[in-house]
Amino acid sequence: STEEYKSEMDLIEPFLKSECFLHEEAKVEARELYKKYEQYCFDSSDFAVKNRTFYRMIESRGFKKKNGAKNKVYIHGIGIEGERWKYMEQPEVVVNESLTQKTRKI
Predict the structure, then answer these.
(1) Radius of gyration in angstroms for the set of CA atoms belonging to the chain, rounded to a whole number
(2) Does residue 97 sit in helix, strand or coil?
(3) 27 has which bridge partners?
């Protein structure tokens, strides 16, 4: 069927499942994501698509490419797996005021 063919021909799906995570606030530099993809393909003995094709495939999945500072381009909505911690909810830190006040000796 067409769906089976599409999934077999999806050259970036295994990379996305293995090396990336999705989060609405996540972003990754486009060049960094592509380098990670190339390394993944090399390690897996797979063929890597060219960067333009890669970015087109990423954008066709709904991820947005946006310009950032210093002429860098970022892909929003996706992150590299090792950086997931940056987007996890941080527990609120409750500071006990008595510990933060300095004691004055008279």
Answers:
(1) 21
(2) helix
(3) 76
Q: What is the secondary structure of 25-41 as a DSSP string?
A: EEEEEHHHHHHHHHHHH
Q: Are 79 and 28 in contact (CB under 8 A)?
A: yes
Tens-place pLDDT, residues 57-93:
999 999 999 999 899 999 999 999 888 777 676 555 5
For 58-66, which contacts have Cβ atoms below 8 Å and span 24 or more sequence positions? 58/12, 58/33, 65/30
> How would residue 3 be classed by pLDDT, with cut points 50, 70 and 90?
low
CA-wise closest residue to 77 among 28, 31, 32: 28
According to the model, what pLDDT value does residue 99 have?
46
Q: 67 has which bridge partners?
A: 73
Cα separation of 79 and 19, whole Å? 9
State how far the Cα of 89 lies from the Cα of 48, in Å rounded to an integer.
34
